Amino acid sequence: MVRLVLPREGMTRLLASGLVAVSLLGAAFAVGCSGGGSTRGNGEFEEGLGDGEIQGSGAAGKGVGGGTAGGGDFASGEASGASPAPSPGAPPTSAGSSSSSSSGSSGSSGSSGSSGATTTPPSTPPSTPPGTTPPSTTPPKQVTPGTLTAGVWDDNRNLDLFLSYRSSVIAAGAKPTSFLGFDEAELTASNAHAGNVGAKQWLDISLVVDTTGSMGDELGYLTREFDTLAATIQAKYPAAQQRWSLVVYKDVTDEYIVRWFDFRSDPTEFRTKLVAQSAGGGGDFPESPEMALSIANRLAWRTSPNTARLVFWVADAPYHDNKAGDMTTALRTARDKGIHVYPVASSGIDEFTELGMRTAAQVTNGRYVFLTNDSGIGNDHKEPSTPCYFVTKLDQAILRMVDIEVTGKYREPTAEEIIRTGGDPTNGACQVGGKHVTVY
Question: For the chain, how many structural domains are there in total?
Answer without folding.
Answer: 1
